[in-house]
Fold:
Amino acid sequence: ETGVTQSPTHLIKTRGQQVTLRCSSQSGHNTVSWYQQALGQGPQFIFQYYREEENGRGNFPPRFSGLQFPNYSSELNVNALELDDSALYLCASSFWQETQYFGPGTRLLVL
Amino acid sequence: DQQVKQNSPSLSVQEGRISILNCDYTNSMFDYFLWYKKYPAEGPTFLISISSIKDKNEDGRFTVFLNKSAKHLSLHIVPSQPGDSAVYFCAASARGAQKLVFGQGTRLTINP
Structure:
């Protein structure tokens, strides 16, 4: 059974650029949730995707957007990057609202 | 508004002894609670969970206790092992809600 995978592992961007992060969900899972973890903090919920539709959103601006594909993989897109977007971005997959299992994360640095 | 709080940023325990990690929450709508463990450069790993209809759940060396009246949960690890050294996050969710709400984490160090 393959776990949750994310790519890339690290990324450096400059302010104002756009970034796309990718996530492959665990086998048998149909729901993907994205979280942002700032240094020294717990993960903060960005949004969740189920059946290719956004199914709940946290307190993040519209420049954070996402997609889910028919194979349940997902993308997180962030436009107009700001310095405060520097963080670890975590993807978690689950079967609907059951336990969420996390990938290793993508560390984004915005300069 | 921090709805889930882990008030101890760090905890140091001797190998073989009991580790107790604490977590408090404020939202009475939370009805499902989880503990995750995180090593550096890895994502959080699910450890154990508990539903609000229970007050205790056990899985090997890990036991989670839930005190709904106090809005408090704790994770007991016994006996503690060096491999348990990690950051531990508690998380909570409400029925029908999509998100997990996490605490700030507690760094557990097991000393030989």
